[in-house]
């Protein structure tokens, strides 16, 4: 079995924290409903009172022990009518409760009506003899739930992603055609390096095959610039960018940028069949991205990238 990624672990921790956060209120509410399980009006009053103070909940509802709804859905603004008698047996979030799990917080799903990521918590309601008499359900919109875990920080480990099988199958029938960027590669790499070092570019993606670059700047990170080969090969382009010190949040050693770019160049020209189509460097998270002619992609930390020699990529 594959080990969980850091992102999956973050999701798991967040779900567990939410499950614990909601447990006490769900248990207390289920206890309140237990003595009124056969009185719809009383149940709906209990649910309505709870919704007046419920900070995160979207809907509250009660089912009988067969999974049919005993109440309408309680909302903050009243009730969603027409829900009594609704059969929820087939809903995935109810399956574990039906098998005896006392309290369960579902996996996230897309809601039927609003088409938004949601969660449902289900708590068994017991009668005075400790037997199942029904189920308390609570629906939550992910937008409204508190974030209880640490902020996710992206993976820094090497990731290899296979591309389009159709491209891979025809790989050896193709050959690199020299692009306009190829013919001016040294000037282009020098200019982009200068934009990173002295003009606030923190993420640069070079599209060698289509002879363009996409740049993100620290003073306007939500908008990117696309430069064509005429602009990328003209040193005057630097005059269009405000002079800025090397970004203080950068983790890439300045002397390594030229080395990274030189390795991009080697990956572009070493082999005429398997060659680099596009590559990127982000100096803040230190990640290098590579896309090859086989449509395969690689993402790795720049230090690891610099440790890889050409035989690693091409064999021999």
Please, could you describe this protein's structure?
The strands form three sheets. This protein has a seven-stranded antiparallel sheet with strand order 8-14-13-12-9-10-11. Strands 1, 4, 5, 6 and 7 form a five-stranded antiparallel sheet that branches. The chain has a two-stranded antiparallel sheet with strand order 2-3. Helix content is 33%, strand content 26%. It folds into two domains: 6-141, Beta-Lactamase (2-Layer Sandwich), CATH 3.30.450.20; 159-314, no CATH class. The model has no long low-confidence stretch (mean pLDDT 87). By secondary structure, the protein is α+β, with helices and mostly antiparallel strands. Helix 6 runs antiparallel to helix 8 (254-269). It contains ten helices and 14 strands.
Tell me briefly what this model is.
The protein is an alpha+beta fold and 316 residues long.
CA-based gyration radius: 29 Å
Task: Count up the helices.
Answer: 10
Helicity, as a percent range: 25-40%
Structural class, please? alpha+beta
Tally of structural domains:
2
For the residues shown, what is the average pLDDT? 87
**Distance from first to last alpha carbon:** 32 Å
Strand fraction = 25-35%
Strand order of the largest sheet: 8-14-13-12-9-10-11
The succession of helices and strands, N to C, reads: HHEEEHEEEEEHHHEEEHHEEEHH
Rough outline: elongated
Biggest pleated sheet: 7 strands, antiparallel
